[in-house]
Amino acid sequence: MCISLFMISSYDHSGSKLAVSRFLSKKMERRQNSRRQSAVKVYLSWPGQESQCCRVKNLSATGAFIEVGALRIPEDRIIKLAFVLPINSLIKIHRLSAIVVHRSHQGLGLMFQQV
């Protein structure tokens, strides 16, 4: 979501400034694409570590949030992803690279490279 100066300065002058302050206090969304809930398996790998199976919590065209449990993967680390996609009676593997853009106790926020 972007805040335009027009939106900030064009509130109803007969009303209060409260509506503008409520608008500005909303959490700012930085994602360019909306995310969808998911339960897809993904295997994470990076140099010096064995591949680890994790679950994708949400996914967009440019990134994902991955539940990683106790894995300790630092921010700014480039990791390899192998998505396991069941399609009818087949299993398709889709490979991507991503960078860890944030961490929390719930998992990792990833931004895909070269989508």
UniProtKB/TrEMBL annotation:
Residues 29-113 form the PilZ domain. It comes from Nitrosococcus oceani (strain ATCC 19707 / BCRC 17464 / JCM 30415 / NCIMB 11848 / C-107). InterPro entries: PilZ_domain. Gene3D superfamilies: predicted glycosyltransferase like domains. The lineage of its organism: Bacteria, Pseudomonadati, Pseudomonadota, Gammaproteobacteria, Chromatiales. It comes from the Bacteria. GO terms for molecular function: cyclic-di-GMP binding. This is PilZ domain-containing protein.
